[in-house]
Amino acid sequence: MELSLVLDLLGTIAFAISGVLTAFKKRMDLFGIFIIAFVTAAGGGTLRDILIQAPITWMRDLTFVYVIAGAAVFALIFRKKLGYLRRSLFLFDTIGIALYTVVGVQKGFEAEFPFLVCVALGTITASFGGVIRDLLCNEIPVIFRKEIYATACIVGGSMYYLLRMAGLPIDLVAIASGVVVMTIRLLAVWFKWSLPNIYSREELNQ
Amino acid sequence: MELSLVLDLLGTIAFAISGVLTAFKKRMDLFGIFIIAFVTAAGGGTLRDILIQAPITWMRDLTFVYVIAGAAVFALIFRKKLGYLRRSLFLFDTIGIALYTVVGVQKGFEAEFPFLVCVALGTITASFGGVIRDLLCNEIPVIFRKEIYATACIVGGSMYYLLRMAGLPIDLVAIASGVVVMTIRLLAVWFKWSLPNIYSREELNQ
Amino acid sequence: MELSLVLDLLGTIAFAISGVLTAFKKRMDLFGIFIIAFVTAAGGGTLRDILIQAPITWMRDLTFVYVIAGAAVFALIFRKKLGYLRRSLFLFDTIGIALYTVVGVQKGFEAEFPFLVCVALGTITASFGGVIRDLLCNEIPVIFRKEIYATACIVGGSMYYLLRMAGLPIDLVAIASGVVVMTIRLLAVWFKWSLPNIYSREELNQ
């Protein structure tokens, strides 16, 4: 799956760059910046592998370590120009979420975990790197507060599981589910969708 | 052990509700609230299973996932009335701590870990969910500052280990140790026990 | 390796004491202080063992648990006099970093992980305890902001790997790499080395 590899790399790059930019705002040193880039891009997959007790991907295949390091250096050098790239970055990030979701749910599916656990594994793969990034930067994880991000992962992940159960071929299911994740995320940002507000006016004014 | 299952579910519900209330105060969205409820109720057991390298309970048996989701929905809908429930909640929470401690120390005992490690596993099972909840909400874990909570787990967990070593039947030991955890916690709250203060007056005024 | 054991214990003591002092500043209770001492001293090795899916050292051998508890009690009792000990503590801490790095990279090397992963394992063993300490105390990890700490681990860890690949005897390699970690750290503090500043003056004034 050559295309999948390219997309996966683009996603990794986007996640690494988002890590660099966050660490940068916190005035971390070079080491801190690299670590934040790394956990943002690899943290979700690492937690997934720990939970399903599989070998951790990046520990045996260094491709992603090199890609993350390269993206971090790039982001540092061109940080002043990344504003112009905001759209591309957002697109990469969306691709990353979609791919990471598919990879996560697929790993769960193949290890025969139940439906909800597979969907959770997809969502964890796509979102937990960002959660660790925010924790290490001493912020409440952004995903818990204003993103529809996770909803896209949950819908796409569920679709993946159900279509695989229905017996459709793996490549088709992966592409279709990934496209669904991306579409929901793009539409959500475009139309400013958010989860239904659960707070009353008084609660918000407190 | 039907009774044990009922109590375990009550404990899970109490932990999940305490997670919802914390996330709610931080104005998290629906997704964030569910995640915080989930880690509060399942985080301690997950860390325990990772440490002893056993399969993670909720990944193969979804009962607790459903219970947590139900408790979260309930807590959200009735959040204005939970004030009246405070006493019941506190009781559930105490039951939860007791049960989680027993489950944790039992798993350690059966895997033949040494005494202190078994007690630590019981305490981790009972308290780590709350630690992760506080970390994700960007607070210093409450357990490190004002609760005698952990002391109850340590005493009850030690008792469990010693009685099992003495050859007493497992059900009796589980019940007796659980009751000890609950009693210490209830007495501690009733009589406002706390760990001995280690700070001098000057230190506290700094 | 008797010497190695003594040095390892000294390092553990130094890490535990640094944990106590941090928890103390946050006015934690006795339980919180012990937990912070424990994660500072044992957290890095625990994460390493989880990542390489090896049994977790302190769960089968309690020596370090006792040493950490003893160091915590010592630090609490003599906290007012630890100022006089600052130099010894710094030395112990440096020894600890060196030993922990060597232990970590050695475990990775023997499990045949690739070069970069071995170096990362050494660095994680030496530094992650401090990261967890800072997270639990609700601070941005100090290692991400002003220490050359990690650089010393990376250089010494790389040296270990390369010398072992070159076929040198394990004891010699361990000692030489540990000495390199210590030397870099001591020189860095002495000459106030830091990683190259990557922030422009405008960025720092924002």
Question: Mind sketching the topology for me?
Answer:
3 copies of one chain form a homotrimer.
Chain A: H1 2-25, H2 30-51, H3 57-60, H4 63-77, H5 86-110, H6 115-136, H7 149-165, H8 170-190, H9 201-205
Helix pairs in contact in A: 1-2, 1-4, 1-5, 1-6, 2-4, 2-6, 5-6, 5-7, 5-8, 6-7, 7-8
Q: What fraction strand of chain A?
A: under 5%
Give the N-to-C terminal Cα separation of chain A.
52 Å
SS class of chain A? mainly alpha
Low-confidence stretches of chain A: none
Order of helices and strands of chain A: HHHHHHHHH
Helix proportion of chain A: over 70%
Beta strand count of chain A: 0
Q: Give the biggest sheet of chain A.
A: none
Oligomer: homotrimer
Mean pLDDT of chain A: 86
- Large-scale geometry of chain A: globular
Largest interface: A-C, 26 and 27 residues
For the record, the count of structural domains of chain A works out to 1
Number of helices of chain A: 9
Radius of gyration of chain A: 17 Å
Give an overview of the whole structure:
The structure is a homotrimer of 206-residue chains. Chain A has one domain (2-205). Chain A has 206 residues and is an all-alpha fold. In chain A, helix 1 (2-25) crosses helix 4 (63-77) and helix 1 packs across helix 5 (86-110). Chain A has nine helices and no strands. Helices cover 75% and strands 0% of the residues of chain A. Chains A and C meet through helix 2 and helix 3 of A and helix 6 of C.
In short:
Three copies of one chain form a homotrimer. Helix content of chain A is 75%, strand content 0%.
